[in-house]
Amino acid sequence: MAEEKETATSYNLQIKIPTELKERLEALAKEAGVSLNQYIMFMFIRETKK
């Protein structure tokens, strides 16, 4: 499932998602003008502020 590795100031998180979801997220990231990782981080931050 997910693997977490602790560093001094952050965590590395690796997840597996379906290819179709990755492609949809990549399209949304491209529309926003950011990388896939940046877009996903934005989504996490937005959801945790609710």
From TrEMBL:
GO terms under biological process: regulation of DNA-templated transcription
Record-linked SUPFAM superfamilies: Ribbon-helix-helix
Protein name: HicB family
Organism the protein comes from: Campylobacter hyointestinalis subsp. hyointestinalis
